[in-house]
Amino acid sequence: MHDTYSTRLIVNGKESTLALDPAVTLLDALRDDLDLTGTKKGCDHGQCGACTVLVNGRRINSCLSLAVMHDGDAITTIEGIGQPGQLHPMQAAFIRHDGFQCGFCTPGQICSALAVLDELRRDVPSHASDDLLAIAPTDAELRERMSGNLCRCGAYPNIIDALRSVALEQA
Amino acid sequence: MKSFTYQRPASVHEAVAAVHAIPGARFIAGGTNLLDLMKVHVETPSHLVDVNRLGLDRIEPTPDGGVRIGALVRNADLATDERVRRDYALLSRAIVAGASGQLRNKATTAGNLLQRTRCPYFYERAMACNKRTPGSGCAALEGHSHNLAILGASAHCIATHPSDMAVAMRALDARVETVGADGVARTIPIAALYLPPGSTPHVETSLRRAEMITAVTLPPPCGGIHVYRKVRDRASYAFATVSVALIAHPGNGAAGASRLAFGGLAPAPWRREAAEALSGAASPDDLADIILAGAQPTAQNAYKLALVRRTLSASLAQAAHIQSEGARR
Question: Do B237 and A52 touch (CB under 8 A)?
């Protein structure tokens, strides 16, 4: 039996205290300990983005983070973003614009998409920013900022359509 | 992952003491590189010392007009800091040229500097790698070396340092502040942080055992036009084959490069100050001759010789264009 560490996570507004082996990733804690299987394990190496969640409002790869390092953190997964019948506008936009086929990458895409719009509001620059001091939500910006989320079905153009439509709704 | 124990120290001194006292202990910051390597058993620490909550996440002005960046400042926060975007645009540009939005939110300043190579033979435990297993040989020399080093490497290792951020830090003359196992602080110029591989490529930096980076400082802003131009195998989210960090000052001659550093070429950010000294009178090819002196490419990465010249020319043209437009970048 390995040592376990008491870890308090506030996931989608609900507090849980788990006794965790330190080697458990945040992704595995969400899926296996909290039964929140909306967050997907794709590559498990931070390359595909399927595991993207929001931690204290910011997107990270949950596969490349230890759950014990998130003691006290507020985590939002796809289950906390919307529910059937009460979709978040970003989820509705993905459906409206056909932003997925198989759906495996979609929870990560949607968490990432919400963070992208927040990062644009906070003036976080990207490789596509022409002017570091005047950042605008162009399509080139949206594409660059979503490059950490792979979609093997190739729904990329429609994913960008979904982001653009929500960005315009919010503008 | 191999099993390990975990500790969240209350201070830097407690952190370095713990790593010093426990065999196989390591610091963990963002974890984006270390955990990746632990999953493939290239890294097998016995104990992790979590340095995330030690208050090292601030960006502050220094008395001389520069800036001190806490070791735990996230890459995204550093690239977004208004002073950095305005006065050290090169650094902002380099950071956002690397990784993905998710990784930049987690990866830290010190962790970025200390990230390990992405040489495929370092990752693959079935293959020889002197960096991973000293004395085992280097499978890359006769293997897939498409994106490995052409400069500063050795017969024992041709791995590159993968960071974009470090290339900008090198051009900006960053200094690395540390605290040692004995609790004593010191400062290392970034030029002296990375050691040449020689016959000991597993010894990558001048940091001593249990020495911890606490901050990186930048000297006062040097002005000029800042360009970070990165060439890679796809448009986004890939390591550099060649990158150029350029600061150009108007009136500094035809080539106009007052700072010049390269990524993707060597075991550390590659800078040849002699090229900058020459810059006023030199053509881009003259500069490249100095940059590339002593290059030892493999058959698979000799393309980088031409790519350095072209990327340097394109970077200088980009700086001239920005200058002619009077645009701020």
Answer: no
